[in-house]
Inverse folding.
C-alpha cells in the first residue's frame, strides 16, 4: 500500500487488487448484495483505493481495515441510494457514533503498550509476528519469502505470542 501511496506503483496495486478483490466480493455478498452488484462495488472500492491512496496512514489503520471500511461505506451508500432496507449488520455499523475522547485515548495507550512489548521481543520472533499479523502473510508465505523452514516460523511465532501474552496480561 505504501508503494501505491508514495510511488503510484501499478504493480503493487495489481498485487493488492488480486489479494483483496475476491475477499471483498465475498464480504459484500455476505452483507446482502447480489453477485453482480458485489462485483461493481469491488471495482468502485478498488478504484477509490487507487485514487485515495494518498489518504492512507499506516499509523491509523492496517491496510485491510482501511479497505474494508471503504467497502462498507460504499455498500451503505448504495443501499441508502436505492432505498432498500439495510441489513442489520450494516445498519448497526452505520448508526454507530464516534468514540469519545476517553476511548480514543485508551486505545492509543494500549497501542503504545503493545508496540513497546513488540519492541522487547527477540528480533526474529518480532519479525515473524509482524509478517503474520501485521503483514497478513500465511506461514507458508513467510517461509517462501524468508527461506526459513515452516517449523522454525511456527516456533518463533508461538514463542513470541507466549511472551506477548505474558507482557500484556495486565491489559485485560
Amino acid at each position: 500500500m505504501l508503494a501505491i501511496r508514495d510511488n503510484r506503483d501499478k504493480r503493487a496495486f495489481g498485487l493488492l487488487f488480486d489479494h483483496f478483490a475476491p475477499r471483498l466480493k465475498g464480504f459484500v455478498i455476505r452483507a446482502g448484495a447480489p453477485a453482480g452488484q458485489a462485483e461493481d462495488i469491488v471495482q468502485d472500492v478498488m478504484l477509490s483505493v487507487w485514487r485515495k491512496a494518498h489518504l492512507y496512514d499506516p499509523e491509523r489503520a492496517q491496510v485491510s481495515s482501511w479497505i474494508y471500511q471503504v467497502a462498507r461505506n460504499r455498500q451503505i451508500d448504495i443501499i441508502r441510494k436505492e432505498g432498500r432496507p439495510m441489513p442489520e449488520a450494516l445498519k448497526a455499523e452505520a448508526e454507530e457514533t464516534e468514540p469519545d475522547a476517553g476511548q480514543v485515548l485508551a486505545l492509543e495507550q494500549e497501542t503504545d503498550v503493545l508496540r513497546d512489548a513488540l519492541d522487547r521481543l527477540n528480533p526474529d520472533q518480532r519479525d515473524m509476528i509482524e509478517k503474520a499479523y501485521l503483514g497478513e502473510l500465511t506461514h507458508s508465505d513467510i517461509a517462501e519469502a524468508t527461506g526459513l523452514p515452516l517449523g522454525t516460523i511456527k516456533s518463533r511465532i508461538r514463542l513470541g505470542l507466549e511472551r506477548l501474552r505474558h507482557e500484556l496480561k495486565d491489559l485485560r
The chain has a mean pLDDT of 82. The chain is about 75% helix and 0% strand. The two ends are 32 Å apart (CA to CA). The domain at 2-95 is CATH 1.10.1740.10 (Rna Polymerase Sigma Factor; Chain: A).
